[in-house]
Amino acid sequence: MHGSDSSPLFQAALLQGFRQRNLIEGELIGSPGASRDSVFIVRNGRIRVYLASEDKEYTLTFLEAGDIYSTHSGAYIQAAKASEVLIGETALMLRTLDALPGAAPSIIRALGQTLANSMQLIEDLAFRDVEGRLARFFDGMLARKGHPHGDAQRLELDLNTEDIAHLLGTTRQTVSSLINRLARQGILSRVAPGTFDIHRPDMLRTRSRQPGKLSAG
Questions:
Q1: Distances from the Cα of 207 to the Cαs of 23, 43, 129, 169, in angstroms?
Q2: CA 3, CA 43: separation in Å to the nearest integer?
Q3: Whole-prediction pTM value?
Q4: Rounded to 5 degrees, what angle do the CA atoms 83, 25, 158 make?
Q5: Rounded CA gap, 172 and 45, in Å?
Q6: CA proximity to 40, closest of 4, 102, 92, 105
Q7: Has keyword Lipid biosynthesis (predicted)?
């Protein structure tokens, strides 16, 4: 449910007493162990949900306009860029659901995406090196968002290199280096920031399913 300010979901939330909160890039809206149990609706921007240890961060999902999530999820919840949310106590959301049952699919979608990403992250960390995880990421995004462009498949992502690194549990420098390597091997080319032409999707798929090094052969 990716809505506008006039959507029934936003109107119902405002009527139930949700308040608007403006977030600057990097600001936390929730963290593990936080005592406050609130629910928020993303009005615009992008919110990152992630787990963190002393030296690692693992992104579970990105929330965008219309998505609903809880601050009491046991994860860090941070504005990936300047964002606006409508926030209220969980009891307010329960009343909103009574007033607008159509809000439930948005909650289910966000939680389902988080669970799917969590399972993929666990599988990737257990069975794939970073290069394999990157190949799987590109292969999955190509299936969802790719479209023909000349002799290649054009992939346009609303994610920067750091966002991709967070999703893969690695560093921006590593992702940049691996993308450059894929480009040298003729598997893809970077057209613009966030835009790629995939020339050998078959090689991405093969690499995403088994260990070993990508080969240009």
A1: 39, 38, 10, 18
A2: 8
A3: 0.57
A4: 70
A5: 21
A6: 92
A7: no
DSSP 65: T
Cα–Cα distance, 59 to 113 (Å, whole number): 12
Instruction: Kindly provide the residue ranges of all beta strands, DSSP E only, lying in the chain, ordered along the sequence.
Output: 19-23, 28-30, 38-44, 47-52, 57-63, 68-70, 76-79, 83-89, 147-149, 152-156, 188-192, 195-198
As given in the structure block, the two tokens for residue 10 are 């936003």
Q: Which of 104, 118, 145 is nearest to 1 (CA)?
A: 104
Residue of 115, 145, 110 lying closest to 9 (CA atoms): 110
Domains and CATH numbers, the chain: 8-100 (2.60.120.10), 127-209 (1.10.10.10)
Encoded tokens for 119: 């399972």
- CA 177 to each of CA 145, 183, 215: distance values in angstroms, whole numbers, following the listed order: 23, 10, 16
Angle at 194 between CA 41 and CA 42, to 5 degrees: 5
What would the two tokens of residue 153 be?
């498949």
